[in-house]
Write a structure and sequence with these properties.
This protein is mainly beta. The protein has 2 helices and 28 strands.
C-alpha cells in the first residue's frame, strides 16, 4: 500500500482531499466549502506558550458531536490504567517474559491489548502504561479514541494500518507510530500481528535536546512523517469506543466518524522509521549512557527527568578500546521496560528474544548475564559492527507496577535471575 506523507517534526501542516476544502485566510468561515463543518482539536491549553501550543482545525462532514451519543460501559479486562497496584504474590525482583502467543480466535486490536505495567496516575496526567498487542482481525466499522493518553505503537511482527481522523499510516517492524491523545482511529492488518504499546499520560513526546552533540544525529526532524488527509463517507452502522480515566465506553453511530476532508495544524499523528536514527557512541573508551539513544522524550517539570524516554539500541559500530563494551552493571533511578523487535540483544544473548519483555524497576541491579560478561571481558577489541538488532526501552521516573495478567502469565520466566548465577568472584587481592 502506497500512502502519501508530509515530512518534518513539530511542523504546522495543511492538507485537503478535495480541492478548495481548506478555507483561506481564516479558520472558521460562515459557510465551509462542500457543506463541511469546522472544528478545532486542541492538544494544549489555549494559553500555552506558542512553542508548545498545539491545535488542529478539521473540516469534516459531520462535527464530532454527531459522533457521540448515549454511552454504555464496556470492559476490556486485560487493558489496565494507572493507578493499578495489583495484588499478586510476586516478590520484588527483575522480571522477563517470553513472547506472548498470537490469538487463536478472531481478535481485533482492542481485544488484543494486554497491559504489562502501569505507573503514575492517569487522573493527574502523570505516568504511563506498557502493553503488548496481538490481533488477527481488522476493526472494520469500529473506531477507538484514547482520551487518557498519547499512544506509541512499536510493531514487532507485520504491518499495521492506522486509519486516523487525519489520514492513514502504515507501519511495520522497525517503525513506530504516535497517535495524539483524543484522536479517533481504526486499526487493520493483513496478517496476524504483534507488538508493543506505550500509553503516555503526561506531556507529549518531543525530540530530546542534543546538547553538545550539536545540530545533527539521533532522530532528525526531516525523517518524521505525517499523513495526508483521507476520509470515509459511509452511512452504515459504526461503534465508537472511548477510553476515559481507565474506563471504556461505547456508543453506536449510523455513519463513519472518520470523515475529515481537510485539516491544518500541528496536533497530529506521525510515524518514524527507526532505521533512520543516527547513533552516536564512544569512539575511544567507555560505554555511553543509554540516553544517547533516545528517540523521543516526554518531559516533566524536572529538567532531565522524563515521564517517558523512548530509547532504542540499533545497529551500530563498537570501536572503543580498553572498554567493557556491553552495558555495564547498574542500578537506576528510572524504571526500564525493554522489548526486542528483531535480532539479538548484546547484553542478553540467550533468553531475550523478539517479542519478549524485560522489566528492571528503579534501583534494582541489572546488567549483562554471565555469558555476555565472559565474552566481553575476553574478546579482542577490534572494531565490530553490531548488526541485525533492534531493541528498545520505555523508561520512566515512576515505578512500574505489574498487572495481575503479567504476574500470572505462563510466559513469565521463573528462572530469569539465574542468568547471573554464573558470575564468579574474580577478586584475588592482586592488581
Amino acid at each position: 500500500m502506497k500512502l502519501d506523507y508530509m515530512t518534518g517534526f513539530g511542523n504546522d501542516f495543511q492538507t485537503e482531499s478535495l480541492p478548495g476544502a481548506l478555507p483561506v485566510g481564516r479558520n472558521s468561515p460562515q459557510k465551509c466549502a462542500y457543506g463541511l463543518y469546522a472544528e478545532q482539536l486542541s492538544g494544549s491549553p489555549f494559553t500555552a506558550p506558542r512553542n508548545i501550543n498545539e491545535r488542529s482545525w478539521l473540516y469534516r462532514i459531520r462535527p464530532s458531536v454527531k459522533h457521540t451519543g448515549k454511552y454504555t460501559k464496556i470492559d476490556f479486562p486485560f487493558w489496565k490504567t494507572a493507578p493499578n497496584i495489583s495484588e499478586n504474590n510476586l516478590p520484588l525482583g527483575q522480571y522477563r517474559w517470553d513472547p506472548f502467543p498470537m490469538p487463536g480466535n478472531a481478535t481485533n486490536f482492542l481485544h488484543g491489548v494486554k497491559t504489562i505495567t502501569t505507573s503514575g496516575d492517569v487522573n493527574t496526567h502523570n505516568g504511563m502504561a506498557a502493553s503488548i498487542y496481538a490481533f488477527n482481525e481488522p476493526m472494520d466499522n469500529l473506531v477507538f479514541t484514547n482520551a487518557d493518553a498519547e499512544m506509541l505503537f512499536v510493531p514487532e511482527t507485520e504491518n499495521i494500518l492506522l486509519f486516523t481522523e487525519m489520514g492513514k499510516m502504515l507501519v511495520g517492524p522497525g517503525e513506530i507510530a504516535i497517535l495524539p491523545r483524543g484522536m479517533m482511529v481504526k486499526i487493520s492488518n493483513s496478517k496476524p500481528c504483534r507488538g508493543y504499546i506505550c500509553e503516555n499520560y503526561g506531556a507529549k513526546f518531543t525530540l530530546p535536546d542534543r546538547g553538545p552533540i550539536g545540530a545533527n544525529c539521533l532522530a532528525n526532524p526531516r525523517d518524521f512523517k505525517t499523513p495526508t488527509s483521507c476520509f470515509e463517507d459511509k452511512e452504515e452502522k459504526h461503534v465508537s469506543i472511548v477510553k476515559w480515566c481507565g474506563l471504556f465506553y461505547q456508543t453506536e453511530l449510523n455513519h463513519s466518524p472518520l470523515d475529515v476532508v481537510a485539516w491544518h495544524g500541528n496536533y497530529i499523528p506521525y510515524c518514524y522509521d527507526l532505521r533512520n536514527f543516527s547513533p552516536v557512541g564512544a569512539i575511544s573508551f567507555d560505554h555511553p549512557d543509554p540516553s544517547i539513544y533516545t528517540v523521543l522524550t516526554a518531559p516533566t517539570e524536572t529538567a532531565g527527568t522524563a515521564n517517558i524516554d523512548f530509547v532504542i539500541f540499533p545497529e551500530r559500530w563498537a570501536v572503543a578500546e580498553n572498554t567493557f563494551r556491553p552495558p555495564w552493571y547498574h542500578r537506576n533511578i528510572m524504571s526500564e521496560f525493554m522489548g526486542l523487535i528483531y535480532g539479538q540483544y548484546d547484553a542478553k544473548p540467550e533468553g531475550f528474544v523478539p517479542g519478549g519483555i524485560s522489566l528492571h524497576n528503579m534501583m534494582l541491579p541489572h546488567g549483562p548475564d554471565a555469558e555476555a560478561f565472559e565474552k566481553a571481558s575476553n574478546s579482542e577489541l577490534n572494531p565490530v559492527k553490531i548488526t541485525n538488532t533492534l531493541a528498545f526501552m520505555f523508561e520512566t521516573k515512576f515505578p512500574q507496577h505489574l498487572t495481575k495478567f503479567a504476574a500470572e502469565a505462563s510466559q513469565l520466566q521463573g528462572d530469569y535471575s539465574d542468568c547471573w548465577n554464573g558470575i564468579n568472584k574474580n577478586f584475588n587481592g592482586k592488581k
